Q: What sequence folds into this?
């Protein structure tokens, strides 16, 4: 199959392939994001050695599986290794063999170890053996390109990327694979023969995010609404129980992660750590710190500051569209037919919040549409300290060129219309923001809307308009 998008990642792999030095690359990202597909397709599924871990497999099962890979690539010993040191000793011998496969152009010996967190079972010596393999052998093999991959992002970051032991300063490259952007989703659908308008692609992002595996399940004979019903809402659908399996497959003890996600999901603008501890039941200690860090590393939540209250701490907000959708509609089986729910009042309420999440996942595209891609900026949210009115702004782009874009995100079926009441509301909100934060920067009201803005006598209150098409750049 053709690789869609991933231009930066392919460039990085190309560079490593021809770098003329030993390379140790770490590829990580959330489940179903396409890590294995990218590596296998880029190298045409041809490796000097490939092995993958087994989900929930015991140490002996992992070694047995690794042994089968050794045999398939030419190892003659065939007996299951006693431990990981023995397994990597045999891999070293295999890679020294003159018959080992080399990349046809670069001459590289590419070794791909997939789902390595699953190989690291309790009380096994996997990590120390991998450390010994690289530091005692791989780091001096000029022709070796070692790629390790895993969905358990927390394991990858804790035990390899930020390891203070044998892997410290030994990794030559890291690659965090993020979900597709809207532009990549559009290219994926076109390549798959799935016909959707850009509006429908945005709405598909509200449900499935940019997760390639989910998009690959679409039936091109059906429309978007039918696909949502068949894949997610239907109890027999392939993604109906995905929410239940998602966290269990990523975290060894997912109970805290699920509690945090479900607490945050109840408050669309996010929660402070102290609020989270109270609402989730996860005590405010190392367990909460670890779970929040892991959820952020996996891209399920974002951490941000309230512009006016930096000392108050961080807010944590759920930004994974599929997790939010599943929590809202599947957890208590609130919807038994998306076709019946579509375009109801509750649907429009959900859609407004979901579109805001899409925008938060496409801040670089918003900046590009504003012509400020090269301007350094920090993104914030803001909640008024005033108890009266409860004003808030979900996205502020605080620019180094002394401008703050105050972003209003609206999803409508037609051009968005600003009436007198909304114009007054916007002006009041901006003045309240200026007064509370005492900012002397220029404040630009920026409307992000799928359908564009209808010009009238009140629309001049907006300095910038970002359209749905702009999110596809």
A:
């Amino acid at each position: 199959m053709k690789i869609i998008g991933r231009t930066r990642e392919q460039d990085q792999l190309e560079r490593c392939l021809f770098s003329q030095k030993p390379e140790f690359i770490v590829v990580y990202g959330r489940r179903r994001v396409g890590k294995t597909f990218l590596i296998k397709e880029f190298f045409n599924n041809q490796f000097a050695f490939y092995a993958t871990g087994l989900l929930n497999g015991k140490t002996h099962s992992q070694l047995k599986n690794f042994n089968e890979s050794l045999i398939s690539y030419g190892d003659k010993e065939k007996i299951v290794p006693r431990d990981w040191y023995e397994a990597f000793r045999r891999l070293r011998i295999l890679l020294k063999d003159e018959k080992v496969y080399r990349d046809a152009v670069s001459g590289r010996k590419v070794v791909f170890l997939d789902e390595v967190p699953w190989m690291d079972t309790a009380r096994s010596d996997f990590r120390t053996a991998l450390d010994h393999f690289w530091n005692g052998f791989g780091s001096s093999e000029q022709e070796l390109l070692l790629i390790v991959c895993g969905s358990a992002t927390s394991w990858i970051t804790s035990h390899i990327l930020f390891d203070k032991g044998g892997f410290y300063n030994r990794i030559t490259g890291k690659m965090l694979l993020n979900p597709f952007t809207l532009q990549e989703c559009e290219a994926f659908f076109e390549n798959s023969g799935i016909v959707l308008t850009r509006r429908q692609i945005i709405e598909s992002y509200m449900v499935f995010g940019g997760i390639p595996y989910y998009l690959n399940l679409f039936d091109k004979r059906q429309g978007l609404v039918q696909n949502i019903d068949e894949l997610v809402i239907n109890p027999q659908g392939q993604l109906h129980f995905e929410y239940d399996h998602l966290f269990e497959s990523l975290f060894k003890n997912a109970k805290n992660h699920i509690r945090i996600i479900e607490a945050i999901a109840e408050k669309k603008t996010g929660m402070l750590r102290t609020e989270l501890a109270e609402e989730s039941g996860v005590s405010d200690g190392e367990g909460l710190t670890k779970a929040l860090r892991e959820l952020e590393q996996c891209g399920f939540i974002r951490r941000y500051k309230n512009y006016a209250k930096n000392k108050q701490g961080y807010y944590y907000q759920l930004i994974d569209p599929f997790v939010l959708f599943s929590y809202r509609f599947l957890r208590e089986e609130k919807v038994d037919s998306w076709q019946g729910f579509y375009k109801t009042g509750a649907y429009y309420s959900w859609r407004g919040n979901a579109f805001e999440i899409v925008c938060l996942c496409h801040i670089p595209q918003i900046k590009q549409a504003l012509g400020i891609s090269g301007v350094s900026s920090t993104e914030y949210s803001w909640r008024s300290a005033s108890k009266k009115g409860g004003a808030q702004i979900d996205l502020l782009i605080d620019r180094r060129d002394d401008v703050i874009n105050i972003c209003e995100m609206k999803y409508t079926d037609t051009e968005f219309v600003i009436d007198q009441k909304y114009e007054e509301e916007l002006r009041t909100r901006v003045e309240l923001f200026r007064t509370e934060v005492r900012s002397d920067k220029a404040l630009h009201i920026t409307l992000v809307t799928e359908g564009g803005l209808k010009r009238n006598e009140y629309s001049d209150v907006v300095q910038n308009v970002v359209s749905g098409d702009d999110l596809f750049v």
